[in-house]
Amino acid sequence: MELFDTHVHFLAQEGAFAMEPVMSRAVQAGVVGLVAVGGSCDLNKTAVEATQRYPGLVSAAIGFDRSQTDELMSMPLIDDAVGRLRRSVDGLRALGTRICAIGEIGLDYHYAEGTSVLQQSLFSDQCSLAASLHLPVVVHCRDAEEDVLRILGAYRQQCRGRELIGVLHCFTGTLGFAERLLELGFMISFSGIVTFRNADALRDVARTIPLDRLLVETDSPFLAPIPHRGKKNEPAFVRDVVNALATLRGIAPDALARQTTANARALFAFN
Ligand SMILES: [Zn+2]
Prior knowledge:
By secondary structure, the chain is α/β, with parallel strands linked by helices.
């Protein structure tokens, strides 16, 4: 089975040694590609390290997620951060490092509604950066659907001529939200949450997403799928997400793995 985990975080505090066993179990499980996802200076750094250590297997997404507005407390600081990000991407690409997306970025009003205005600036500025770099975006959304759709609608306009422009990761929203994202040219990525007992509504959504827009992820080291609940999540467990989605949709796990891997390669220009 050929698996592609589209969303993995390598935590800085675990150090480079922790990557080795995790990556070898991933390869054994059939993982042929993964996106190491940033979101803060630390996470961006480990994502870049992962792609430099495993260049054939790993590509990096870098950016500033909504939690960074705690530090980037004003518009000039946000401008600075986005300017630095552009220079980082340019510099890394010149070195041959595989940067496949800007992410994760987005809005989260569940924990931090008070920073919503700054979150929106940081998010939309990074969408504009992604459009100008011809990179897709990896988007997080919690309790902020309407604002996310508005900002992604503007981003869609900036991506003229490109059909697929990003992914909504760890999808937990409604069918209506998914449909509007699909219209904008987004893929929908499901995590281990689809295996959780109380996730019937999410499974109903997962059943209806067109197969050519479906992605899978672990969001490691968080959210381990059943039957690994309570353990630290890792890319090898993306197989359990594939199995769950295949069962839901009544198709062979192999076929679902093949399709989601092809989708990931298409979105992230990963050969
Ligand atoms: Zn994430």
